Amino acid sequence: MERTNQRRLVVAGLSTSTIEFYDFMLYGTMAALVFNQVFFPAYSPTTGTLAAFATFAVGFVARPIGSIMLGRLGDRIGRKRTVMLTLVLMGGATVGIGLIPSYQSIGLTAPIILVALRFIQGFALGGEVAGVALLLIEHSKESTRNLLGSIVHMGALGLILSSVATAFFSHVSGDGFLDWGWRVPFLLSAVLFGLTYWLRRSISDSPQFVATQRDAARQPRPNLARTFALYWRPILLATGITGAGGVVYYTVFTYSVGYATGSLGYDRNSILNALISSAVLYTIAVPIAGWLADRTSARIVISCGLVFSIVFAFPFFMLFDSGPVGVFVAMSTYLCLTMAPVNAPQFALYATQFPALSRYTGTALSQAIPAASIAGTAPFVAQYLLGVTGSNTSVAWYIALLSVIALGCTWVLGRRPSLLDDELETPVHAGETPHSSRA
């Protein structure tokens, strides 16, 4: 790959990750701290928090729809043009959230608009991250595939910006935080979107996609039903892996923030500072995990992260009782030793399971389906389990069980042959699985 184009791709990948983390974690933080009072004031604090987390989950419900529609678009018109579209959708929805009047101003219309914009966020993300990851992976050499693919997970800058913006405007607005202070971080996201749009305009599309375009007559594109019929196994296995990682991720970043500031009564700014510090360490750990996956294998690195997730599920919440410092230790440990190794090699592993003609669709679905069915509901499920049992032990069992399932999925998926290195894949005929000639 041309060196200049590679640098642009890396920067575009980082900017995409930054925006993803900024938008989704900003929403998750505000769902835990603000939305229950601004959009659901008629409910009790616990019920209002559950309602706010339910709107958080709406974005994940929309992700499979976005992955299907945008994935198909990306396999037809190209990775680059599709990720430009997703950026516009995501940016408009995020800025729009900051402009929604409160429940006291327009009543039930306010949470309805919130849900609609959250849906658009999830729809856009369903196709965005996979598209940028594929641009990086399909341009890379085999020896750097996991490292470059991990860049889209290095979004701690976005988390840092989100947390800093929330903490800053929480301090500046004081008692006005619920009125206007929380809105400013959403409005400021317009700057990030403008910068990222400018960066993406200069990158080139994937060479494998260009090759399939030239040879489209010999290799007709499979429709959606055909894609599911041929590749349901890797999609199902990826669902187990991504789902477990997503539960850990959103339990750490969304549920635990609300638990620490609500049930434990810790200072809001102290917890946000712990979140920022943990994110910095996570950013460093992600490329290290990607590099290790290139030196060993994605299967080994992901498995190590899942084993630690099982072991650390119970001590994680115990550390919260020791104060904000314990919260920082718990968050940073889980992020560096579980989330970094589980996330970093994911896109490179999933991309190997699909030919170029359906790679965007397959890879996007491998992320979006578990995000909607498992990860997106994690804060809601965790809050519900705490309410029913009165203890986070049930939440720890929930994390551990999903991690065990993911461990089995990782070993099965990691043993399947790779399709990524075939620039011009042989068409798969009726009754033939894509791996049958390679087993």
Task: Explain what you see.
With 439 residues, the protein is mainly alpha-helical. The chain has a single domain, classed as Growth Hormone, Chain: A. Helices cover 78% and strands 0% of the residues. It is built from 19 helices and no strands. Helix 3 (45-77) packs antiparallel against helix 4 (79-97), helix 12 (224-263) packs antiparallel against helix 15 (324-343) and helix 13 (268-295) runs antiparallel to helix 14. The longest helix has 40 residues, at 224-263. Residues 423-439 have low confidence and may be disordered.
Chain-wise SSE layout:
Layout: H1 3-33, H2 35-38, H3 45-77, H4 79-97, H5 103-106, H6 109-139, H7 145-149, H8 156-173, H9 177-181, H10 183-200, H11 207-214, H12 224-263, H13 268-295, H14 298-320, H15 324-343, H16 346-351, H17 359-375, H18 378-389, H19 393-414
Helix pairs in contact: 1-3, 1-6, 1-8, 1-10, 1-12, 3-4, 3-6, 3-17, 3-18, 4-6, 4-10, 6-17, 8-13, 12-13, 12-15, 12-17, 12-18, 12-19, 13-14, 13-15, 14-15, 14-19, 18-19
User: Under CATH, the topology is which?
Assistant: Growth Hormone, Chain: A
Backbone structural class:
mainly alpha
Main beta sheet strand tally, sense and closure: none
CATH class: Mainly Alpha
Radius of gyration: 21 Å
Q: Residue share in helices?
A: over 70%
Assigned CATH superfamily: MFS general substrate transporter like domains
